[in-house]
Design the sequence.
């Protein structure tokens, strides 16, 4: 039985300090206590949740999010709070309500957005009001360092200092070590289907404070105000769009991580190179899970039959959570056929001109189509937008896209895309200004006939082929979190 343990709130230094330093110190202590004692259950966390420093840091994080201008059902944005209410007064009232136990989350506002890839399907988001976002952010500040101590290193989504590139690097590493069969899986409607009872049981394994548990449950049960204006109850799931939702989803899916990673723990059948070699001698499979949120792959050093058996095992583990694998998106493939994961195309193939085979990471087709669609939308021949504005926006889109994919084998892809963008912009400018081809050459070539960069009012068109392609190094179990103390601390 896990032992109960109290959090010594008085241990927080009393000397004056900034809110960020105070919150960081609190998180570091919580994480250290959780990592030192895996069976510890934390009480008296509620005081940290409504601490003025916690709420201030939480508000700053809400104000820095991409959805800052998207209101909840009350119609208020962060800008409205800052202009009409004032941040100090808003946070004081919110703290009083939370501390007194009178705070009640409002239903989230339903918003449907198209899924990427042009499939025609939509993703349903739940947009909380600003006050609810702040309290959720405060809860995350307190709970995340505790549960981060329990999370398995093979999960990468929505965790601090971890990136999609770490997941791709791990797949690349194990693919080169003979893990060639792949269970490419996706959980159907994961955020909408998580069983609340099972999720709360997982939270209670670490949290004893009934007031914190009540807050978490209240957010799960807040309900949804649909686009049609109807109020719907929330019986399962944690709405996408909530700040706390990714953490809760990771807490629930840790069940899957623990089950599949158990053989890799000390003493397990895959914990050492020798034990893994014994599996190979006996004809037993070895596997490695790599998960990013509700998307995951299982790399198998074995046969197709071994991989199919793992599909059934995964389905059995997910069932108590109210989750199931999406049949249309879950498949067993050999790495030589390739598979897509997190926007990358991973494939084991022969190096051109040699008999040597390697695991390559390319850019998948869907992100390329998505980028081209954005470029086409900005350079539509009937568009009358200001060219300088268009070049700025194109640069923003292409820089972000290229920085994400620059670790793939993509030099030729970037060159082709750069060529595509150049022609789209030139044709749009010709239509916009009614130029003939000789006008284009006069403006964008040097006297000796060389092409100059396309530029308008000092803004040059960003060239994708100038992006430096580099390999992303595998970090493995050495990825630190924000609360990892130095070894000499």
Sequence:
């Amino acid at each position: 039985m896990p032992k109960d343990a109290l959090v010594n709130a008085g241990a927080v230094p009393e000397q004056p300090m900034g809110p960020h330093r105070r919150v960081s110190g609190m998180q570091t202590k919580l994480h250290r206590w959780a990592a030192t004692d895996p069976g510890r259950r934390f009480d008296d966390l509620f005081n940290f949740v409504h601490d003025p420093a916690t709420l201030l840091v939480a508000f700053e994080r809400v104000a820095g999010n991409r959805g800052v201008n998207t209101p909840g059902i009350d119609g208020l944005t962060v800008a409205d709070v800052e202009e009409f209410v004032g941040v100090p007064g808003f946070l004081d009232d919110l703290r009083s309500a939370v501390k007194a136990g009178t705070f009640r989350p409002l239903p989230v506002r339903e918003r449907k957005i198209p899924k990427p890839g042009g499939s025609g399907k939509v993703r349903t988001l739940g947009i909380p009001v600003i006050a609810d976002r702040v309290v959720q952010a405060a809860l995350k500040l307190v709970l995340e360092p505790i549960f981060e101590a329990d999370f398995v290193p093979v999960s990468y989504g929505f965790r601090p200092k971890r990136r999609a590139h770490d997941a791709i690097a791990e797949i690349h590493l194990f693919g080169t070590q003979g893990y060639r069969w792949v269970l490419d899986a996706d959980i159907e409607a994961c955020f909408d289907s998580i069983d609340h009872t099972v999720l709360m049981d997982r939270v209670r394994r670490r949290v004893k404070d009934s007031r914190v548990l009540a807050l978490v449950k209240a957010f799960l049960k807040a309900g949804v105000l649909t686009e049609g204006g109807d109020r719907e109850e929330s019986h399962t799931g944690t709405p996408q769009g909530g700040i706390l939702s990714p953490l809760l989803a990771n807490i629930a899916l840790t069940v899957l991580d623990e089950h599949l990673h158990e053989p890799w723990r000390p003493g397990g059948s895959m914990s050492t190179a020798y034990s893994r070699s014994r599996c190979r001698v006996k004809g037993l499979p070895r596997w490695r899970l790599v998960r990013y949120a509700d998307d995951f792959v299982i790399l198998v050093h074995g046969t197709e039959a071994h991989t199919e058996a793992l599909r059934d095992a995964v389905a059995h583990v997910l069932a108590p959570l109210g989750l199931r694998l999406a049949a249309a998106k879950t498949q067993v493939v050999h790495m030589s056929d390739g598979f897509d994961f997190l926007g990358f195309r991973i494939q084991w193939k022969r190096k051109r001109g040699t008999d040597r085979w390697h695991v390559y990471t390319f850019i998948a087709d869907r992100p390329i189509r998505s980028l081209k669609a954005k470029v086409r939308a900005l350079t539509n021949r009937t568009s009358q937008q200001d060219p300088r504005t268009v070049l700025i926006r194109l640069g923003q889109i292409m820089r972000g896209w290229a920085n994400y994919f620059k670790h793939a084998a993509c030099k030729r892809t970037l060159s082709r895309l750069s060529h595509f963008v150049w022609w789209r912009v030139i044709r749009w400018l010709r239509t916009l200004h009614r130029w003939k081809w000789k006008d284009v050459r006069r403006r964008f070539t040097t006297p000796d006939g060389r092409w100059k960069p396309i530029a308008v009012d000092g803004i040059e068109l960003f060239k994708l082929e100038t992006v430096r392609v580099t390999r992303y190094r595998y970090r493995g179990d050495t990825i630190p979190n924000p609360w990892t103390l130095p070894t000499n601390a």
User: Anything to note?
Assistant: The first strand starts at residue 4 and ends at 6. The mean pLDDT is 90.
